[in-house]
Amino acid sequence: MIDQPTDIDLSQLTQAIYLKYSYDFRDYAGASLKRRIIHALTQLKCKNVADLQMRILHSADEFMALLQFLTIPTTEMFRDPHYYLAIREQVVPFLKTYPSLKIWIAGCSTGEELYSMAILLLEEGLLERSLIYATDINPHSLEKARKGIFPLDRVSEYTVNYQKSGGKRAFSHYYTAAYDGALFDRSLCENVTFADHSLATDTVFAETHLVCCRNVMIYFNRTLQERALGLFHESLCHRGFLGLGSKESIDFSGFATYFEPLVKVQRIYRKL
Amino acid sequence: MSHLTESQINEVDAILSSRKHYACEAVVIGASAGGIKALLKLLSGLPEYFSLPIIIVLHMPEIFESKLAEIFQQHLALPVQQARDKQMICPGHIYFAPPGYHLSVEMERSFSLSCEQPVHFSRPAIDLLMNSAADAYASSLVGILLTGASEDGAAGLANIKNAGGLTIVQDPVEAEFATMPRAAINMQPPDLILSIKNMHSVLVQLAASC
Hints:
The complex is a heterodimer.
Chain A: H1 7-21, H2 30-43, H3 49-58, H4 60-70, H5 81-95, E1 101-106, H6 112-123, E2 130-136, H7 139-147, E3 149-151, H8 155-164, E4 175-178, E5 181-184, E6 192-196, E7 208-213, H9 222-235, E8 236-244, E9 259-263, E10 268-271
Parallel strand pairs in A: 1-2, 1-7, 2-6, 7-8
Antiparallel strand pairs in A: 3-5, 4-5, 8-10, 9-10
Helix pairs in contact in A: 1-3, 3-4
Chain B: H1 6-18, E1 26-31, H2 35-43, E2 54-58, H3 68-73, E3 80-82, E4 94-96, E5 102-105, E6 111-114, H4 126-137, E7 141-145, H5 154-162, E8 166-170, H6 179-187, E9 192-194, H7 196-209
Parallel strand pairs in B: 1-2, 1-7, 2-4, 3-4, 7-8, 8-9
Antiparallel strand pairs in B: 5-6
Helix pairs in contact in B: 2-7, 4-5, 5-6
C-alpha cells in the first residue's frame, strides 16, 4: 500500500525534477499528473513520493524510468480520420502553393502522428519538398518514432483509419510485417529531424507552415498551454496552419483572437 | 416505487442537517448500462434555479461521437453541454464527459481531459472523475452512482466519502443493472441508498439549502 500523495508532495517532486534534470512538469494539469505519479509509485515499488524523489535525485536511470510514466504514449495512426481528411482537402491545397515546406509535429511521442502525416504528404506529392520536425521530451519515445515499428495487432485498426482519412493506396504498401511488428518504409522519414524539445522550457527553432500538436496540451495547465500556443504562433509563418486534438481548443486561451478556425470541428486553425 | 417513508425522511434530514456547515458546491454522477433512462428520470424537472453544477460520466461506446448533451437538453430546463478541456465549471450547468476521453476536475474548478488508458474498460471512467472531484471539492461534493453492469465508480465513491462528501447509490433493487450499485455498496456503505425518485427530491433539497 502506498501513501497517497499530497499537493505539497507533488509540487516538491516536480520542483526537484526541474532543478535536477530541467524537465518541467510544474505546470502540468494536476489531476492527471497525480494519477500518473500514483501509478509510478506502484510500478516502481516506492512507498511514497519522498521515497521516489530520493531515488530519482540520486539516479538518472531511475528518473528515466519515472519519465516513462509521466508522459502519455496513448496515440494511434490516422487518429480521428476526419482530421486527416480535412488536412488533405482543406490545408493541402494551400501547402501546394509553397516551393518548400516546414512542418512541426510537436509532442510526437512514438511517432504514429508523424508517419500518418508523412504518408499523407507523400500521396499529395509534398513529402519531397517538406522538412518535418518531430519533437518530444521523452528520448525513449523519440527512439521508437525513429525506428517506425508499430505493433502488428493495431494495424487493422490503422488501416480502417487510413481508408477513412482519404488514403489513396493499400495501407500495406507502406509497411513490412515481420514477427509482431509493422516496419514502416524508411523513405517516409528521409526529411524528418527528430529532436528533444520541450514546450515548457525551450524556444522556437524554425519558421513553419503547419504545426500539429494533438492531445498534448490537454496535459498542461492554462499557463503552460499559453506558453505552448505562444511558441506555435511565433513559429508559424504568416497565415500558417495549426492542428490540435479533436477535444482541444484555443477558445479558453489568450490566443483565441490570434487564429481563425479553418475547419472548426476538426480543430484546424489558421494564423491571422 | 414509493415515496420516502417517515423514518427515511428523518434519516435523510439528519444526514443533510449534519452537513449544514459545509456548503455543497457540486454533484458528480456515474452511470453505465441503463443510465440514459435513469438520468433522464433523475434530472427531469430540476428547477431552472438549481444552483449546483452536475458533472456526469455515462459510459458509451467510444466510436460514437456522443450527442448526449443535445438529447438531454431537449428534456431539461438547465443548460446541458459536453465538458471541454480547460473550461471553468459554472453553477447550474449539466456537463457530460466526451466519449473517448477521461474527464477530471482540477483544483481551480475547471475541467481537464486526458487520453490515459481506459479504467474498468471505460474511457471516460467514473472513478477518475470522482477521484479528481473529491480532491477539488472535498467535503462540499455530492457523489451519485446509478445503474450499470460495471464496477466503475465504487472506488471513486469511496474516495468522495473519505474526503467528507455525501454519497448516494441507486437502490440495486430498482436499478436496471444492479452490478455497479452493488459493487459500490460492498466497497463502502454510502450515506444513502435511494430510489431515483427520492434521489431527485434530495437533489432539490440540497440545492435549496446551499
